[in-house]
Amino acid sequence: MTRIRRVVRAGLRRALRQWRRSIRLRVVGSTVALTSLAIGLTGWALLAQVADGLAEARSASAVAEARAGLDRVRAQLETTAVTDAAAASEAVAQIVDSLTQSGQGQGRYDVVVEGPLGGGGETAPVRSSGGVSAAVIPDDLVRTVASSEGLYFRFAEVPTAGGGSRPVVVVGSRLDVPSTGDDYGLYYVFSMADQQATLDLVRNATALAGLAMIVMVGGVAYVMSRQVLEPVRRARRTAERFAAGHLEQRMHVRGEDDIARLSESFNQMAASLQSQIARLENLSKLQQRFVSDVSHELRTPLTTISMAGDVLHEARSGWDPSTARAAELLRRELTRFEELLADLMDLSRFDAEAAQLELETIDLSEVARQLVEEPVLTRKGIEVRVVGADAPVVTEADRRRVDRVLRNLVANAAAYSRSADVVVTVAENEACVSLSVRDHGIGLTAEESLRVFDRFWRADPARAAGGTGLGLAIARGDARLHGGELQVGSIAGRGTDFVLTLPKPGGDASRPALQPLREAGDA
Amino acid sequence: MSQRRTHHDRVLIVDDDASLAEMLSIVLEGEGLTTAVCRSGDKVPAALASFRPDVVLLDLMLPGVDGMEVCRRIREGSNVPIVMLTARSDTDDVVAGLAAGADDYIVKPFKNSELVARIRARLRRTDQILEPLVFGDIVLDPAGHTVERAGQPLDLTPLEFDLLACLLGTPEQVFTREVLLQKVWGYHHPGDTKLVNVHMTRLRSKIEDDAENPSIIRTVRGVGYQAIAPE
User: Fold this and answer.
1) Interface contact flag, A307 B90, Cβ < 8 Å
2) CA–CA separation, B217 vs B204, rounded Å?
3) Is B27 in contact with A301 (Cβ distance < 8 A)?
4) Cα dist. A36→A99, A207, A251, B144 in Å?
């Protein structure tokens, strides 16, 4: 039972979705529904009119015929001399028979005579032809005929042998027998079979025509919607190709209709977008070129200065202390200057989107194990613990950049955390790999955590720890260049946790395999 | 400084920047090398002929002729080791320079010690094999640093010779790029695998019948290279 319900519900949902998605289905569906309604109403009105018309015509002819028969009967009764009730009854019987014969001759009507009336309570004797019973005569007609002069008719149903019924029109009138003064009710029962047949014919024809009409209108709607929708679909396909980067895609403009105007507008939009994109691409190329030029122009003199600084530094032992110190400072600051230039160039390549990845297969577990021997840490006697690096955790990445990110994180931990140990954790899920570098040092405040990736921002304003202040900005740039992410989590007094996440081939880094450290309750 | 003048190795410095060229001379002469400076690419062929350098130190950003073009021209007539100086660490430029025939590269700015180490590494032959080696139809002679394949001499640079000798010396052994860097280039370039990749491409184009489907040196994906033992 529930299974059936589920199947029905699924089917319904599918149909609904189809209805929402397909304009053509909606156009054809609603056209057919509205047409059916219109044709139904029209057909119903038409049939009602025809039925009314037929009934009216039949009743008029019936009344005319009955009147003629009645006149004849009255004339007959006036010429027949009856004196007693029995004779009257006999005369009436004759009349009925003669009427019946003339009626049956043409198969048009039956006759019922009721009377004499006014018998006071007892039902009047009935004489009828063709096996028609008095029950067929509607009661109100009987009353009307009994109480007033004139001719009256009613529509009625006569039961047939098969258990059904056929429509008839009953015309009734009071018949006085002048010689006895008795009243009889004389009823003509006219068959309406012909009219019913006509009506059936009309109804069938109307239904058939209506059905054909609905089918045809549905077909027309289908064709029309196709005519209108096909250009829309073409436009959609063109737009999709355009969005996919085929900027030269344009729509065909044919004629001057709305679709043609839409196509023209689309093409204008596409051309405008294409030129904008070309302009931006050009700007980006200029920027890359500028970076490259500045790089060269600055690096050549810097190289000469640096080499000279090295030479002076080598020779300092023979000099007086302050000159020797000057040579040392010169070399130290030159090194910093070189690092700063290199970092700025890297950042500017990220900004110009000119940075390139050299992907190769790397095992983060192996990378993590190598961090144990990182001199920055061992020099300070910081103990490194590696977690989760027993099995290979493999992805495609640029080894140089990954190494640079991790060296940076480790150097940060060594320089700022005042932690005695560092925990390196490796993990993976189906879409990405993550590596976290966690220290148990002084941690960062919430505000510091927010700013830690800002360029030139330092946790230590005195800059005692050296560095360019660009390391983490570059590290994040490296991570994002891979389509990955570098996140920080920190609790003041309990340590800082950096998580590098890199996508696996075909995967993405939206759900990192490790979450950075968070305050308890702060999901 | 050195007394053994006649044995001084000779470095040709090709650089348009007068100060840098002079500084390079000072540092290299300080290390006991003999230097000559060439300020434009056009004069390089003449300088090669007259100075007969053991190493060329080539700045890639020369005016007039592109540094790559100079590199290519040197390679047309000589197998002298070339170390290029580049201000562009962008991968494409480095790879283009290596593909044009440079043996090694240094990114500006650099420490003097690094410069000297690289030059020395190119001057010193890393003797991969001591005896002549026959490998299928390939014959390597370490004495004259000559290679023949099916009797035809192959024109390899010293670096290419060492690379080939290293791999063929122990067939079937897989060498990682790091190991090759250490054994052939003579020092450790951390993670700089493009150096190996580019030279392997050049070497294959000289020794393989079809460099796309190598039959002598096979790439072991994700690991390195190995020589396929001859039938």
Assistant:
1) no
2) 8
3) no
4) 49, 11, 38, 100
Strand partners, A172: A152, A187
Instruction: Give CA A120 to chain center in angstroms.
Output: 79
- ipTM of this predicted structure: 0.83
Residues for chain B: how many in total? Answer: 231
Which residue is associated with the tokens 């002598």?
Answer: B216
Q: Does A422 lie in the same domain as A336?
A: no
- Specify the fold of B133-227: Arc Repressor Mutant, subunit A (1.10.10)
**Residue A324's domain spans which residues?**
250-355
Contact predicate A185/A147, CB 8 Å: no
Amino acid at A48: A
Residue A213 clears pLDDT 80, i.e. is over it? yes
Token digits for A469? 């202040």
Bridge partners of residue A187, in order along the sequence: A112, A172
Find, in chain B, the residue whose alpha carbon is nearest to that of A289.
B88
A interface test, pick of B112, B118, B176, B220 with most A CB neighbours within 10 Å? B112
Task: Report CA A115 to chain centroid distance, whole Å.
Answer: 77
Average pLDDT estimate for A81-102: 70
Rg (C-alpha) for chain A, rounded Å, is 53
CATH 3.40.50.150 fits B5-123, yes or no: no
Tell me what pLDDT residue A184 has.
Answer: 79
Residue A308: which of A288, A295, A327, A286 has the closest Cα? A327
Per the listing, tokens 């991969």 go with: B128
Please state, in angstroms and rounded to a whole number, the distance separating the CA atoms of residues B190 and A480: 23
Distance CA A426, CA A436 (A): 7
pLDDT means over runs of 10, chain B (231 residues): 57 91 94 92 89 90 72 88 81 80 88 90 78 85 85 88 89 88 77 82 88 86 84 67
Residues A420 and A484 sit within 8 Å (Cβ to Cβ)? no
The Cβ of residue B163 has, within 10 Å, a number of other Cβ atoms equal to 26
Residue in chain B nearest A401 by alpha carbon: B191
CATH number reported for the structural domain that contains residue A128 in this entry = 3.30.450.20
CB contact under 8 A, B27 and A311: yes
Quick one: average pLDDT of A111-123? Answer: 65
Q: Are A350 and A369 in a shared domain?
A: no
Instruction: Kindly list the residues from chain A whose CB atom is less than 8 angstroms away from the CB atom of residue B111.
Output: 306, 310
Report how far residue B198's alpha carbon sits from residue B201's, in angstroms, rounded to the nearest whole number.
5
Whether residue A56 is contained in a domain is answered as no
Query: Residue A292 and residue B88: Cβ atoms within 8 Å?
Result: yes
CA dihedral A60, A63, A69, A73 (to 10 degrees): -160
